[in-house]
Specification:
- This protein is an alpha+beta fold.
- It has 20 helices and 23 strands.
- The strands form 5 sheets. It has a 6-stranded antiparallel beta sheet with strand order 8-7-6-11-10-9, sandwiched between helices.
- A hairpin with a 2-residue loop joins strand 15 and strand 16.
- The longest helix has 41 residues.
């Protein structure tokens, strides 16, 4: 069915555009009449009935809201939607106050928006007509509407909901009225936040809506009414018997996004009228309740958000400041910012960084301002600052433009990176020393090789016993030095892994014979136990072999003849294994344990202190961990944790 629509628009082109937009919107048919001035529109309205009018402001023969006021006087019940060129909030409020159903802006108009606004205006107009008719028919309607306003206009929060349910019960002459909210994380459960039970307020309660009349309201997300025989319709609901309930009417509470928040309901101990007036009143109360509930939720979300920001702001280890963008005047700062610069709060608030001389180089702030004008945010800028004491430091600054009220401000986070810079420089120095050490090792190893070759050549000479001893000692020391140089290079260079799937049980079983034949294993036993099969890791096989050999060799050296070294594999966590080497030798002193993996620390007379240091680097390169425990009652246990594939 076509909807009669009157368009009051001076521009024929704009009117034609509006007609085309309506023709292309959601399949609704419109019977459109267009006039280009107020007087012609009023002539039409005097003799023709329209469902809705679309009024463009201003019209040439009427200024501002004059056209709206005259139309409203002529046809008070006609829904009118106002259309303007500009988004003027003041004009919009005035138009709505004068009775317009909606306010639209041409530049923001879409076919769907226009059609929906007109249809909603018609629907709202119908509701208003019904309410006006009811007010005219019954004197009590005036008192009812007064109850709605007087009962809820001056209160908010919990008091609002108590006042609302009491006013609702009086307006609908019902014994009970209550409002609920959905229980978070418990679908199908409601919590009563206000309950009027005839003469007083009842206690709040939670309940499962299944099998209750409220279930139908929640599922339909609309309005449901059971005017009589309520207990026979819901025989399993014992509370209805206790309340002597005969009738029920309820409506869902939805937020502006259409999400369910709860519901509003009344019950009575007598049959309930089903006239449209009661439904309309229930909808009005529901709209007010939903708006207040959504407002309270927004306030709570804002409060939580502000608390989170405030906590993060106050407790942040980095210095945080909020200053005006134009002149850099400090508005707010946290304690870390004060400590970093050495000022107290009163010395900073209201003053700019330039005024206090905080910026060592004024051009740094100019550079940052230019970046902010184009990007509105900068990150990780290294800027030199000056403390109150005059001492300077290097800060790492990230900043973003934020609008506080009508003023653009700068939210900046500053971290003192002086120590980090020094550490970086120290690391660079260590890297240079490492490179120098590696170069020296290479330079020493080459002539050492030549020396060893010469010494070995001397072995073929017929030397006296005395010189044979000298030669033997020189060769031993030369080879020891060569081994030390090789170990230094092995420790210094990065642990580059060539990983593949490796089954540790197989690898260890392949090594057992060689391990048991090591010189340090003479007279001692090696036992391998595994409770994990398969034990698959992603690893460099050669390097893990080196780990096993080193740990077993150390254990043998600490074990007395006749004793046993145990190597075990077991699961330590769902995705981690533990490879443990145990010996029962003399325990390692507690003050020595932390030093064992340090380079060049050793407890052996002929050790170089690099074996365990290299083992630790290999294990960590495999994303693993190395731990050493030693005590009188447990012996010494070296544990290697590796991630399972």
């Amino acid at each position: 069915m076509s909807i009669p629509l009157l368009i009051l628009e001076e521009s024929l082109a704009d009117a034609n555009l509006l007609v085309k937009m309506l023709e292309g919107a959601d399949g609704q048919s419109w019977q459109i009449t267009h006039v280009n001035c107020l007087e012609a529109g009023m002539d039409y309205l005097s003799c023709t009935q329209f469902d809705v009018a679309l009024l463009t402001l201003p019209l040439e023969d009427a200024q501002e809201l004059t056209a709206l006021v005259r139309l409203r006087r002529l046809v008070p019940a006609l829904p009118i939607v106002v259309l303007t060129e500009t988004d003027n909030k003041q004009l919009a409020l005035q138009a709505l106050a004068q009775g317009a159903q909606d306010y639209l802006v041409k530049g923001q108009l879409t076919p769907e928006l226009l059609s929906r606004a007109l249809r909603y205006a018609i629907e709202r107009g119908k509701i208003l007509k019904q309410l006006q008719a009811e007010v005219q028919e019954r004197q009590r309607s005036e008192q009812t509407l007064r109850l709605i306003v007087e009962g809820t206009a001056s209160v908010t929060g919990k008091d609002f909901f108590h006042s609302l349910v009491r006013s609702l019960a009086e307006a609908l002459e019902a014994r009970y009225a209550f409002i609920t909210e959905c229980v978070e994380d418990c679908p199908g459960y409601l919590r009563a936040i206000a309950f009027w039970q005839g003469k007083e307020f009842g206690e709040g309660f939670e309940y499962d809506v299944h099998g209750t009349p409220c279930e139908q309201v929640i599922n339909s997300r609309g309005c449901q009414c059971y005017p009589n025989r309520l207990q026979s319709l819901f025989p399993e609901e014992a509370d209805l018997v206790m309340m002597e309930a005969v009738s029920y009417s309820g409506i869902a509470l939805l937020d502006t996004a259409g999400e369910l928040m709860g519901h509003l309901a009344v019950l009575d101990d007598k049959p309930m009228e089903t006239e449209p007036r009661n439904t309309a009143l229930l909808e009005i109360f529901a709209a007010r309740a939903a708006a207040e509930m959504e407002r309270l939720r927004a306030e709570e979300a804002m409060r939580i958000s502000q608390e989170k920001f405030s906590t993060a702001f106050r407790s942040s280890p980095s210095g945080i400041s909020i200053s005006t963008l134009n002149n850099g005047r400090h508005i707010e700062v946290n304690d870390s910012y004060l400590r970093m610069l050495g000022y107290n709060r009163s010395e900073l608030i209201g003053k700019s960084a330039l005024e206090l001389g905080i910026w060592v180089k004024a051009e740094d702030r100019a550079t940052m301002s230019q970046l902010l004008q184009t990007q509105r945010a900068v990150s990780n800028l290294e800027i030199e600052f000056r403390k109150k004491s005059g001492q300077t430091f290097l800060g790492l600054v990230s900043a973003e433009v934020v609008d506080l009220g009508d003023e653009p401000c700068l939210l900046a986070i500053t971290t003192d990176i002086t120590v980090l810079k020094r550490a970086d420089q120290a690391l660079e120095r260590l890297a240079e020393i490492g490179e120098l050490a590696a170069m020296i090792v290479h330079e020493v190893r080459n002539p050492l090789t030549t020396i060893l070759m010469g010494l070995k050549a001397f072995q073929r000479l017929n030397l006296t016993e005395r010189f044979q001893d000298y030669l033997h000692l020189a060769l031993e020391e030369g080879e020891r030095l060569q081994r030390l140089l090789n170990q230094i290079l092995l420790y210094a260079k990065p642990q580059l892994l060539e990983t593949s799937e490796l089954e540790l049980n197989c690898m260890i079983n392949e090594m057992l014979t060689a391990l048991r034949e090591m010189p340090s294993a003479q007279g001692k036993q090696l036992q391998f136990q595994s409770s994990l099969s398969p034990a698959i890791v992603m690893a460099d096989k050669d390097k893990l072999k080196q780990v096993v050999i080193n740990l077993i060799s150390n254990a043998f050296e600490a074990t007395n003849p006749g004793e046993t070294v145990t190597l075990t594999l077991e699961r330590n966590a769902p995705q981690r294994l533990c490879m443990q080497v145990h010996n029962a030798g003399k325990p390692i002193p507690a003050d020595v344990l932390p030093k064992l993996t340090k380079p060049f620390f050793t407890t052996k007379a002929n050790g170089n202190g690099l074996g365990l240091a290299i083992v630790k680097r290999i294990v960590e390169a495999h994303q693993g961990e190395l731990f050493i425990e030693s005590a009188e009652d447990i012996g010494t246990q070296v544990k290697v944790y590796l991630p399972l594939k």
